[in-house]
């Protein structure tokens, strides 16, 4: 059985459908989604998960109607403002990833403040991806590497050297990626970092994804065999070795 994942990533999908089912405007679904994020963060802490990364707004979400985009940005500002004290109290370190250059100034300032004020949190790192895209992340990492190594050519860039320039650094790669809302794709989320991540898809809409649903995802993860390219025999003998090491500790 796999140990508990250190890093869980979530694509929080289905807010719109949640409100449509209830004949309510889409922003109600987003509000319920924001409220559910609080519950899931709490459940992760209770289950001793150290890192949670959530997809709040993709580089493609700009294609939504401008009123919905404005509502979402307003919600992010209000969420950050209202959560800072609670995040600090719970020992949560907030990290926001994505291209912030196009954000309204108020959101940029609020992000900087919330990240600075929670920087000492050691219980859980909550990373919120806003205006994030995996392709953007890979490209910005390569550009940052090139700026840091102006006299080297891209031929000298190896996979491991790129890691410190990815926006998720120094987080470990996600062990488990959950997507709610019934779709089975990554939609440009953490595409580099999720190369060996276990994927879990559920039909539950994000506002309905509760602690029990999280436990179901963790149970499914615990039964996965993570080979990382090795054979079954190699995996078995290395987990035997790990178990023996654990006994002699
Ligand atoms: C997906 O629902 C959700 C989003 C586009 C992002 C918004 C996420 C939240 C508001 C959750 C809280 C996050 C923070 C940081 C406060 P959808 O609109 O794509 O749903 P649909 O597929 O049913 O239309």
What does this structure look like?
The protein has 249 residues and is α/β, with parallel strands linked by helices. The protein has one domain: Undecaprenyl pyrophosphate synthetase (3-Layer(aba) Sandwich), CATH 3.40.1180.10. The protein contains eight helices and six strands, in the order E-H-H-E-H-E-H-E-H-H-E-E-H-H. It has a six-stranded parallel β-sheet with strand order 3-4-2-1-5-6, sandwiched between helices. Helix 4 links the parallel strand 3 and strand 4. Helix 1 packs across helix 2, helix 2 packs parallel to helix 3 and helix 3 packs parallel to helix 4. The longest helix has 24 residues. The mean pLDDT is 93. The protein binds farnesyl diphosphate.
How would you describe the shape? Answer: globular
Amount of helix: 40-55%
pLDDT average, as an integer? 93
Q: Which ligands accompany this protein?
A: farnesyl diphosphate
N-to-C CA distance = 20 Å
Please name the CATH architecture: 3-Layer(aba) Sandwich
Biggest sheet character:
6 strands, parallel
Give the count of structural domains.
Answer: 1
CATH fold label: Undecaprenyl pyrophosphate synthetase
Indicate the proportion of strand residues. Answer: 5-15%
Low-confidence stretches: none
Q: What's the SSE pattern?
A: EHHEHEHEHHEEHH
Give a brief description.
This protein has 249 residues and is α/β, with parallel strands linked by helices.
Can you give keywords for this protein?
six-stranded parallel β-sheet; 249 residues; binds farnesyl diphosphate; 8 helices
């Amino acid at each position: 059985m796999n140990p508990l994942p250190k890093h869980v990533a979530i694509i929080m999908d289905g807010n719109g459908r949640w409100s449509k089912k209830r004949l309510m405007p889409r922003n109600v679904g987003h509000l319920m989604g924001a409220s559910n994020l609080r519950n899931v963060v709490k459940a992760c802490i209770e289950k001793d998960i150290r890192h949670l990364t959530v997809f709040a707004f993709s580089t493609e979400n700009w294609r939504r109607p401008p009123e919905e985009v404005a509502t979402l940005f307003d919600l992010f500002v209000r969420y950050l403002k209202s959560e800072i004290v609670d995040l600090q109290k719970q020992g949560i370190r907030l990290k926001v990833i994505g291209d912030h250059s196009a954000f309204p100034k108020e959101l940029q300032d609020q992000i900087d403040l919330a990240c600075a004020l929670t920087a000492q949190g050691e219980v859980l790192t909550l990373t919120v991806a806003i205006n994030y895209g995996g392709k953007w992340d890979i490209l910005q990492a390569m550009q940052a590497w090139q700026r840091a190594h102006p006299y080297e050519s891209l031929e000298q860039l190896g996979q491991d050297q790129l890691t410190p320039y990815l926006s998720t650094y120094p987080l470990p790669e996600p062990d488990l990626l959950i997507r709610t809302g019934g779709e089975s794709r990554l939609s440009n989320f953490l595409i580099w970092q999720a190369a060996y991540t276990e994927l879990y898809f559920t039909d539950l809409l994000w506002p309905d994804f509760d602690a029990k649903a999280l436990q179901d995802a963790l149970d499914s993860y615990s039964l996965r065999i993570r080979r990382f390219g090795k054979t079954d025999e190699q995996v078995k003998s290395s987990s035997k070795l790990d178990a023996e090491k654990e006994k002699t500790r």
